[in-house]
Each structure stands twice: as structure tokens, then as C-alpha cells.
Amino acid sequence: MFNVKDAQNPTNSEKLIPQKPVREGWEKLFALMAENKDDQLIDDSLLNEFDTEEWFWDEA
Predict the structure, then answer these.
(1) Distance between CA 39 and CA 35 in Å, rounded?
(2) The whole model's pTM is what?
(3) If exposure means fewest CB atoms within 10 Å of the residue's CB, which of 16, 31, 38, 58 is most exposed?
């Protein structure tokens, strides 16, 4: 979360400073997701024939 007053203050107008560390608490939340088995990828349902049969990585 950013403090809008700081952004409007001429002395701080060039940068926005987060009020708390980025990703604070994520580790605990990811562990909770894993406990609840809520950490499965959902992208598998988006694959199509091209993705599974035709796409390849160029190994240059």
C-alpha cells in the first residue's frame, strides 16, 4: 500500500515508498495453501492441441 500524501509531497514526488515490505506474509500464506491442497496449477485446463503436440523449445 502506498501513501498518497507522500506521493503528492514535492520532496517525495519522484518515488512511491511501500508502507510494508513487498510480499510480507506470503510464505505463511503459501504454506497454508499447501496444507489445504489449494496450490495446484490451474493452467493445465488452458492447454490446447498446439501446446501439447506442436510446440517445442528450440535447443540452440
Answers:
(1) 9
(2) 0.41
(3) 58
CB-CB contact of 2 with 18 (8 Å) = yes
Three cell numbers written together for 50: 498446439
Three cell numbers at 28?
Answer: 505463511
Helix (H, G, I), strand (E, B) or coil at 51: helix
Q: Give 14-48 pLDDT, tens digit per residue.
A: 667 777 888 999 999 999 999 999 988 777 677 78
Q: How far is CA 49 from CA 7, 19, 56, in A?
A: 48, 46, 12
The phi and psi torsions of 41 (rounded to 5 degrees) equal: -70, 140
| HEC assignment per residue over the chain | CECHHHHHCHHHCCCCCECCCCCCCHHHHHHHHHHCCCCCCCHHHHCCHHHHHHCCCCCC
